[in-house]
Amino acid sequence: MFVLLLALAQELSADERLTLAVWRPGGDVPRELRELRRSGLDAVLVAGPPPEGVDGLPLGVYLDGEAPAEGLRLFLERVPPGARARVGGRLVAVLGPPPESGRGVPDLNALGEPLHLFVEAGWTEAPAAPRWRSGLPEDGPLVAVGGRSAEEVEKAWCAALRLEARWVLVESWVPELAESTARHARKLRLREK
Question: Between residues 126 and 2, which one has the greater pLDDT?
Answer without folding.
Answer: 126
